Amino acid sequence: MKKILVLEDESSIRSFVVINLRRSGYEPIEAETGEQALELLEQNPDVKVALLDVMLPGIDGYEVCRRIRATDSRVGIIMLTAKAQEMDKVTGLMTGADDYVTKPFSPAELTARVDALVRRTSVDEAPEDDGEIHQGPFRLNTRNRTLEKNGQRIKLTQIEYAIMKMFMDNPGRALSREDILNTVWGRDYFGELKIVDVNIRRLRIKIEDNSTIPTYITTVWGYGYKWGF
Ligand code: CA
Fold first, then answer.
1. Cβ distance 8 to 17 under 8 Å?
2. Ligand 1 centroid to residue 69 C-alpha, Å
3. How many angstroms separate the alpha carbon of residue 227 from the centre of ligand 1?
4. Which residue from 7, 152, 140 is spatially nearest to 67, judged by alpha carbons?
5. CA 203 to centroid of ligand 1, rounded, Å
6. What tens digit of pLDDT does each residue of 80-126 get?
7. Ligand 1 centroid, distance to 175 Cα (angstroms)
8. Which single residue of 3, 8, 29, 191 has CA 20 to 30 Å from 18?
9. How many beta carbons lie within 10 A of that of residue 216, not counting itself?
10. pLDDT tens for residues 18-58?
11. Could you write out the three-class secondary structure of 163-174?
């Protein structure tokens, strides 16, 4: 069974989430504090997705996310945000989360988000076309899902890797935000298009020479993005 870490200090919300994950066939692991969550992740390296509440006693969910990403780019991370924290969504995603769900959320919505990320983080279990895509200073290894720029390894999350793969499969072609969302997150994904923009912004910081003047991932106004040189 696929393990999902649930970090939430409010026990009523936590049990609601846990019951619904269990019903969908997952094995939830519960944490009440950020510190506990980090410990549990260390003990369970096979956790597929971590659900992180933001407001917590002790270190907050963003800090937990930052610490996870410092060593682990593989696990999927979904932030659980309250309405009042909507302004912080972008901040949260910039710390390395893949997605966010706004409270209150329905069981169906949460499960759909988890399913989408689990699929994304599990793709390496299925053999993909092996080999390399080499474009400009970039070398994408599709067997071990790594990216190098001028021979330097760039650490990517699974979502960022999937976006890079889509770009490098379509050099010079304008890709709509909807296309990117459908390909990377899946067609049954409930999320907002904004998630594409935030992930692209984070990707630019990692791969562009100067992320404020992007030259590899350019914006196609009112449509989407284009990969090229
Ligand atoms: Ca809380």
1. yes
2. 21
3. 39
4. 7
5. 29
6. 988 655 556 667 677 888 888 888 899 888 998 999 888 877 665 44
7. 37
8. 191
9. 20
10. 999 999 999 999 999 999 999 999 999 999 999 999 999 99
11. HHHHHHHCCCCE
Place of tokens 């910039």: 94
Q: Are 77 and 68 spatial neighbours (Cβ–Cβ below 8 Å)?
A: yes
**For residues 122 and 171, which has the higher predicted lDDT (pLDDT)?**
171
CB atoms closer than 10 angstroms to residue 49: 25
- What spatial distance separates the first Cα and last Cα of the chain, rounded to whole Å? 43
What are the tokens at 115?
Answer: 């399913």
Contact partners, residue 73, CB within 8 Å, separation at least 6:
96, 155, 156, 157, 158
- Helices 107-122 and 11-23: angle between axes, nearest 10 degrees: 60
- Across the chain, mean pLDDT equals 89
pLDDT of residue 123: 60
